[in-house]
C-alpha cells in the first residue's frame, strides 16, 4: 500500500494556463468573483507543491476516510453481463458514503490555508452536501448547503444528516428546483460573502481552477483501481465505467487510465425517461457547447442559449451541464458516453443488491447498467472496472416507491400503478 | 448600419456638461409582456432617464436577486425571444431618440452567434452591451464584432477588483464603466456601500477617461443624489422592476415607473 493518496495530474498538459481543455473550460465569471477564483488557483498551486499539504491530506484520507477503498469482484452480478469479469471500485465505503469526501477534504484544507471561516456548497443527491458538512464539523467551519427543493424532498435523509452535522440547509425554490438552481444560489451567496467564504464546489465543472483541482483530488480513485486491478486480475481493464452528472467520480476513475490507450473510458449519462422524450439529463448525448456555471462545456439548452430543465430519477445526475474535461474527452474520442434510462439504472440497482448484497446509489446504478451492456459487448474475456461512487441508503425511499417495497401506503400504491410495467419482474 | 455607441458617449458627456450625473435605468425585455415592456421603457425615458439598459431574460440569472429573477421568469414564461429584445431596443430608441443598451449573460449571445447578435443589435439602433459574466480575458471576439458594428462594450468592475484589473478593463471597455457599488447580486438596499466611492476613485485613477456609473442597490432619490456626488451616472434596476411587480395593474405600473424615474432624475441633479 502506498503512503500517498494525493495525486495531482503529473502530465499537466491540460488544462492550459487559462483553464482550457481543448475548446472547453475557461473562466466565465463575474468580475466580483475574479479575485476569489484567482486566489483559489494560486493557493491550490502552492498547496499542490507543498509536502505538508500532501501529508495532512494523506493522513485524513487514510485515517478519516478509510483509503484505499476496496476493489470488489462481483461474479454473480457479472453473470448477467455475458460473463465478463467486473470489479467495483468501492467509493461507497468511504466515510460519508461516496467519493465526494476525497475532494471535500482537499478543499477544506485549502479553505483553512486561505484563512476563510465559512464554506458554502451545492448539492444534488446530498452526498456532496453531507461530505462538506462533515468536513466543516471536523474543521470547525461555518457551513451553508444549497439544495434544490425537489432534491430536499427526494433525499430527505441526507438533509437530516447535514443538519445533524451542524450545517444550514437552504431549500432553493427557483427554476427547476434541482442541482443547477442550487449552484445558482450558491454563486449568489459567494458574490456577496466572498471575503470570508469559500465555495467548496462539488464537481469537475465551474470556472478554472475547479475542474482541474477537483479532478486532482479524485485522481486517487483511478490510481488505486489501476494498481489493484494489476495485482488482482494481472492486467489493465478493457473498460472503465462510471456515471456522469457533473462528472467528478468519472474523471476520478478515468484520469489515471487516459495514457492506457487500450482502456476504454465509458461515461454513463442519465437518459431519464428516454432521450426521445426530452425528459433526461444526458448532456453529452443531447447537448450543445455553451456556457453554464463559469465554464464552456456541453450544455442542455435551446437555440437561444436558455438552459433547459433536466430530468433524472437520480438527484445527483439531474444537471444540464458537465465538466469541461469530459467534453474534451468526448470530442477527442478518448472518452465514450452513452445514456442509461431510469428503468435500466433501477434494474441494475436491484440486480446488484440481490446478487452481491451491495445496495448502490441510484447515480452509481447508471454505471452498473452501462457495465452490463459493455460486458455483453465484450464477451466473456472482458474485464471491466466500475466506479461504485456511492451507497444507496439515501435512495431507499425512491427505490421503495419504485419497486413497491412498502407494505401499506396509499401514496405508494398509486406510485406502483405508474411503474406497473416493471412491477412484474421486480418481485 | 452602425450602432449608437457615439450617442451613448454624447449623452453621458451632455449630463456631465450640465454638472450632473446621468440616470441609467434597467428593465427586462418581455416584462410583463413585450409591448408592456416597451411601454415601461418609454415611460422611464419620459420620466427623465438618460439611458436604458434592456435586460435579456435568462433561465439562470446568477447575478440577479429575487426581484429581477421573478421578472425574468415572467418574461420567459411569456415566450420572450432575442427577436423580441431587438424589437424592444428598436422601438424604445425610435420613440425617444435616446441610447438603449442590452444587458445579458454571455451564453445567449454565444449560442445565437456573436456576429448575428451584434449586427442585429446595431441595426435595431442599440448603443452597446453590458456583459456581466464575460470577463475581459474572454472578450476579444465580442469586442471585435462590437467595434465593427459601432456598439459599446460596458464592463463591470467590483470593489474586489485589483488596480491592475481595473487598468486592463478600462483599457478595452467603451461607453462607460459599470461600477458595482457592493459585493452582491442585484436588488434594492437600504444604503449604498461606502466601497462605491472608493471604487469610482480607483477606476478613474486608471486614466482612461471613461465615465464611471454606479449600480447595485440604488432605489431612491436620496441614494441617487448621494451616488451622483461621486459618480458620472446612477444605475437603477430592481427598484423599477419592483414598482412594476407591486402595481395592481399595468397602467399603474407604468405610472409608478414614470414617477420613480422623475424622482431619481431630480436626485441625480441634486448632488449630495
Automatic annotation (TrEMBL), chain A:
It is an enzyme of class 4 (lyase). CDD domains: Trp-synth_B. Pathway: Amino-acid biosynthesis; L-tryptophan biosynthesis; L-tryptophan from chorismate: step 5/5. GO terms for cellular component: cytoplasm. Belongs to the TrpB family. The beta subunit is responsible for the synthesis of L-tryptophan from indole and L-serine. This is Tryptophan synthase beta chain.
UniProtKB/TrEMBL annotation, chain B:
SUPFAM superfamilies: Ribulose-phoshate binding barrel. The keyword Metal-binding does not apply. The active site is at 53 (proton acceptor), 64 (proton acceptor). It catalyses: (1S,2R)-1-C-(indol-3-yl)glycerol 3-phosphate + L-serine = D-glyceraldehyde 3-phosphate + L-tryptophan + H2O. This is Tryptophan synthase alpha chain. Belongs to the TrpA family. The keyword Lyase applies. Its EC number is 4.2.1.20. The alpha subunit is responsible for the aldol cleavage of indoleglycerol phosphate to indole and glyceraldehyde 3-phosphate. The gene is trpA. Transmembrane segments: none annotated. Tetramer of two alpha and two beta chains. One of its GO terms (molecular function) is tryptophan synthase activity.
Amino acid at each position: 500500500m502506498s503512503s500517498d493518496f494525493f495525486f495531482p495530474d503529473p502530465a499537466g498538459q491540460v488544462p492550459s494556463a487559462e483553464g482550457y481543455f481543448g475548446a472547453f473550460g475557461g473562466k466565465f465569471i463575474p468580475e466580483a468573483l475574479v479575485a476569489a477564483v484567482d486566489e483559489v488557483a494560486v493557493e491550490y498551486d502552492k498547496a499542490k507543491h507543498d509536502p505538508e499539504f500532501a501529508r495532512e491530506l494523506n493522513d485524513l484520507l487514510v485515517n478519516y476516510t478509510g483509503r484505499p477503498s476496496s476493489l470488489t469482484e462481483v461474479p454473480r452480478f457479472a453473470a448477467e453481463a455475458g460473463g465478463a469479469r467486473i470489479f467495483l471500485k468501492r467509493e461507497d465505503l468511504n466515510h460519508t458514503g461516496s467519493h465526494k469526501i476525497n475532494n471535500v477534504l482537499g478543499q477544506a484544507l485549502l479553505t483553512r490555508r486561505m484563512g476563510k471561516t465559512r464554506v458554502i456548497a451545492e448539492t444534488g443527491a446530498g452526498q456532496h452536501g453531507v461530505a462538506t458538512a462533515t468536513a466543516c464539523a471536523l474543521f470547525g467551519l461555518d457551513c451553508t448547503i444549497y439544495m434544490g427543493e425537489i432534491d430536499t424532498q427526494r433525499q430527505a435523509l441526507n438533509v437530516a444528516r447535514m443538519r445533524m452535522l451542524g450545517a444550514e440547509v437552504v431549500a432553493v425554490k427557483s427554476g427547476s428546483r434541482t442541482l443547477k438552481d442550487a449552484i445558482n444560489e450558491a454563486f449568489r451567496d459567494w458574490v456577496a460573502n466572498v471575503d470570508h467564504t469559500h465555495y467548496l464546489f462539488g464537481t469537475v465543472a465551474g470556472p478554472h481552477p475547479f475542474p482541474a483541482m477537483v479532478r486532482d483530488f479524485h485522481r486517487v480513485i483511478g490510481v488505486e483501481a489501476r494498481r489493484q486491478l494489476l495485482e488482482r486480475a494481472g492486467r489493465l481493464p478493457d473498460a472503465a465505467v462510471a456515471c456522469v452528472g457533473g462528472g467528478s467520480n468519472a474523471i476520478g476513475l478515468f484520469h489515471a487510465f487516459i495514457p492506457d490507450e487500450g482502456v476504454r473510458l465509458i461515461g454513463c449519462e442519465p437518459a431519464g425517461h428516454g432521450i426521445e422524450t426530452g425528459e433526461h439529463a444526458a448532456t453529452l448525448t443531447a447537448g450543445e457547447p455553451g456556457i453554464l456555471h463559469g465554464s464552456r462545456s456541453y450544455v442542455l439548452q435551446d437555440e437561444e442559449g436558455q438552459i433547459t430543465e433536466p430530468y433524472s430519477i437520480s438527484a445527483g445526475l439531474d444537471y444540464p451541464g458537465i465538466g469541461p474535461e469530459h467534453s474534451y474527452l468526448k470530442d477527442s474520442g478518448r472518452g465514450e458516453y452513452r445514456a442509461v434510462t431510469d428503468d435500466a439504472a433501477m434494474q441494475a440497482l436491484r440486480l446488484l443488491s440481490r446478487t452481491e448484497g451491495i445496495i448502490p446509489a441510484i447515480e452509481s446504478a447508471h454505471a452498473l447498467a452501462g457495465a452490463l451492456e459493455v460486458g455483453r459487448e465484450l464477451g466473456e474475456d472482458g474485464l471491466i472496472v466500475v466506479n461504485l461512487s456511492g451507497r444507496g441508503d439515501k435512495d431507499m425511499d425512491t427505490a421503495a416507491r419504485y419497486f413497491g417495497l412498502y407494505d401499506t401506503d396509499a401514496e405508494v400504491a398509486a406510485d406502483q400503478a405508474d411503474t406497473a410495467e416493471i412491477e412484474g419482474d421486480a418481485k | 448600419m452602425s450602432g449608437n455607441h457615439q450617442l451613448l458617449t454624447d449623452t453621458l458627456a451632455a449630463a456631465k456638461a450640465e454638472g450632473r450625473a446621468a440616470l441609467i435605468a434597467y428593465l427586462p425585455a418581455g416584462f410583463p409582456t413585450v409591448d408592456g415592456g416597451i411601454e415601461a421603457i418609454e415611460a422611464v425615458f419620459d420620466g427623465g432617464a438618460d439611458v436604458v439598459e434592456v435586460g435579456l431574460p435568462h433561465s439562470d440569472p446568477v447575478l440577479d436577486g429575487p426581484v429581477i429573477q421573478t421578472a425574468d421568469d415572467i418574461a420567459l414564461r411569456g415566450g420572450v425571444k432575442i427577436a423580441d429584445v431587438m424589437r424592444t431596443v428598436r422601438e424604445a430608441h425610435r420613440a425617444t431618440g435616446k441610447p438603449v443598451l442590452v444587458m445579458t449573460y454571455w451564453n445567449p449571445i454565444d449560442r445565437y452567434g456573436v456576429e448575428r447578435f451584434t449586427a442585429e443589435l446595431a441595426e435595431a439602433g442599440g448603443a452597446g452591451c453590458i456583459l456581466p459574466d464575460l470577463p475581459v480575458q474572454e472578450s476579444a471576439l465580442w469586442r471585435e464584432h462590437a467595434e465593427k458594428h459601432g456598439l459599446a462594450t460596458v464592463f463591470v468592475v467590483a470593489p474586489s477588483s485589483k488596480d491592475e484589473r481595473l487598468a486592463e478593463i478600462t483599457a478595452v471597455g467603451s461607453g462607460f464603466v459599470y461600477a458595482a457599488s457592493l459585493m452582491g447580486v442585484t436588488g434594492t438596499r437600504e444604503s449604498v456601500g461606502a466601497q462605491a466611492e472608493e471604487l469610482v476613485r480607483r477606476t478613474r485613477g486608471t486614466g482612461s477617461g471613461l465615465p464611471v456609473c454606479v449600480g447595485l442597490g440604488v432605489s431612491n432619490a436620496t441614494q441617487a443624489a448621494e451616488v451622483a456626488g461621486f459618480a458620472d451616472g446612477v444605475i437603477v434596476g430592481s427598484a423599477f422592476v419592483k414598482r412594476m411587480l407591486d402595481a395592481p395593474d399595468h397602467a399603474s405600473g407604468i405610472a409608478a415607473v414614470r414617477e420613480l424615474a422623475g424622482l431619481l432624475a431630480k436626485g441625480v441633479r441634486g448632488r449630495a
